């Protein structure tokens, strides 16, 4: 684990220290990506401030997972919900909040930012939560649960908290792990730099097996790379996995009235379909569409931010539809030209750590 820690610190210095001085990016939407074809705000009845969505195909429709904070003066209370959408991304079912607590639980729901993933025919929800009586930075851990439908309602089954894995620390708030299906097994990308891959053992163990660790050489000047969407096989060329990441960095922009504010950015990456799952290509600059950053600015309940946060995507032969949260108050979907997105990714070399 010492090797991984040293490499991670080096990677942070490489990817997190470059200055964002280019005046071309003061108004990010002036440099909107040409492969972002259109965007649409998602409307969820009864939950006008739903945000940070994830999505997956649900028969001929889509299933959307979303997050809400019911009382903005108590941001430590957080819930997740689901709703079925039609092909136009409009709701066709009543939204439903998911129950993440036992009936006798003493702590309120604190679940955050779920990711939907099929593993074979089983649908999983991977999310972050804090079950402890008192919220703490280190209390948040990753949970995995099956998401089942009884014909009327969705239910989380057998939720399991992951507590035993390489690098586990009570000082870390765990979130944004990247789930993917490898030959009918649920795998998780713990980090992108290095690209550290776990396999959760489940069955009540709370443990993960380390599968591989690789590190790539490339430059990203917009903060440390962190997970975003689930990774899907077949969405990229050559049978690789494709996923979208996020990063954040304080910068003064036209969208923050020249104030030095934390901005969130989105990018894409591919990795090999077989172990050690090396990252092969990555965005060289943020993916930006119209109205990513322009639009309503809400009163912050943590600190001032300008947020675009990817949570899931679906695709066909020509297009990718990615859902994302905006400003911790809104849910959106962007339609991307799949071929042009993939053409925009630059190849990188990765080396095997273990």
Describe the structure in brief:
With 354 residues, the protein is mostly beta strands. The protein has helices at residues 2-16, 338-344, and strands at 36-41, 51-58, 61-68, 79-85, 96-97, 112-119, 122-129, 141-149, 154-161, 178-182, 185-191, 195-200, 208-217, 232-233, 241-252, 260-271, 279-283, 305-306, 308-315, 319-326, 330-337, 345-347, 349-352.
CATH homologous superfamily title: Glycosyl hydrolase domain, family 43
Helix percentage: under 10%
Mean pLDDT: 89
Low-confidence stretches: 1-25
Topology of this structure?
Layout: H1 2-16, E1 36-41, E2 51-58, E3 61-68, E4 79-85, E5 96-97, E6 112-119, E7 122-129, E8 141-149, E9 154-161, E10 178-182, E11 185-191, E12 195-200, E13 208-217, E14 232-233, E15 241-252, E16 260-271, E17 279-283, E18 305-306, E19 308-315, E20 319-326, E21 330-337, H2 338-344, E22 345-347, E23 349-352
Parallel strand pairs: 16-18
Antiparallel strand pairs: 1-21, 2-3, 3-4, 4-5, 6-7, 7-8, 8-9, 10-11, 11-12, 12-13, 13-23, 14-15, 15-16, 16-17, 17-22, 19-20, 20-21
């Amino acid at each position: 684990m010492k090797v991984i820690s040293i490499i991670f610190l080096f990677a942070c210095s490489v990817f997190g220290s470059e200055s964002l001085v280019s005046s071309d990016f003061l108004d990010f939407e002036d440099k909107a990506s040409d492969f972002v074809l259109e965007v649409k705000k998602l409307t969820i009845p009864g939950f006008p401030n739903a945000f940070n969505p994830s999505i997956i195909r649900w028969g001929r429709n889509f299933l959307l997972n979303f997050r809400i904070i019911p009382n903005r003066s108590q941001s430590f209370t957080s819930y997740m919900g689901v709703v079925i959408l039609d092909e136009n991304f409009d709701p066709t079912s009543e939204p439903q909040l998911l129950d993440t607590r036992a009936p006798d639980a003493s702590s309120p729901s604190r679940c955050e930012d779920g990711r939907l993933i099929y593993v074979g025919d089983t649908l999983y929800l991977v999310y972050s939560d804090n079950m402890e009586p008192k919220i703490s930075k280190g209390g948040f851990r990753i949970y995995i649960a099956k998401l089942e439908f009884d014909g009327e309602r969705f239910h989380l089954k057998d939720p399991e908290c992951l507590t035993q894995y390489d690098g586990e620390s009570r000082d870390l708030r765990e979130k944004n792990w990247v789930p993917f299906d490898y030959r009918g097994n649920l795998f998780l990308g713990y980090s992108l730099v290095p690209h550290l891959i776990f396999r959760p053992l489940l069955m009540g163990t709370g443990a993960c097996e380390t599968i591989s660790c690789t590190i790539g050489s490339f430059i990203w000047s917009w903060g440390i790379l962190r997970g975003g969407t689930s990774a899907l096989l077949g969405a990229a060329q050559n049978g690789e996995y494709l996923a979208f990441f996020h990063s954040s960095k304080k910068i003064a922009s036209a969208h923050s009235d020249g104030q030095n504010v934390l901005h969130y950015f989105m990018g894409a990456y591919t990795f090999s379909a077989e172990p050690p799952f090396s990252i092969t290509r990555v965005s060289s600059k943020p993916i930006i569409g119209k109205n990513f950053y322009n639009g309503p600015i809400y009163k912050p309940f943590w600190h001032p931010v300008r947020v675009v946060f990817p949570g899931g995507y679906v695709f066909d032969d020509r297009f990718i539809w990615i859902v994302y949260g905006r400003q911790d108050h809104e849910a959106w979907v962007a339609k991307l030209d799949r071929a042009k997105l993939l053409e925009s990714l630059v190849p990188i070399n990765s080396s095997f750590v273990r």
